[in-house]
Amino acid sequence: MLKEISVHKATGTWVVRTDNSVLGETRNALELTEGNMPPVIYFPREDIGMAFLEPSDTTTTCPKKGVASYFHLVGRSGQVDDVAWSYETPADAVSAIAGHIAFATGTIHVEKL
């Protein structure tokens, strides 16, 4: 059985950063919830410093969201593989996340200010 999924506007200001750099900040983030998994914050692509990200060859498929394309973080310290993803043509149920990008936590920090 597929988990319930929903997307809504995330309240407040959100920032995504590494230990050394701010990659983006927005008041227009979306929060995606799926079953009992932790929520994922999606940033509008225009609010992200895309110069820090390089497209990856990695893709994954989710039956509820569609095909995700991944990005590497590229900086002075080197490259960190597949730290971000986006759904270029998401499924209708989550169409709001088109044009947005999400980040894996760990090397990347996603925080509400």
UniProtKB/TrEMBL annotation:
Which InterPro entries did the record assign?
Answer: DUF427, DUF427_sf
Query: Which is a Pfam family this sequence falls into?
Result: NTP_transf_9
Q: Which residues form the DUF427 domain?
A: 15-105
- This one is known as DUF427 domain-containing protein
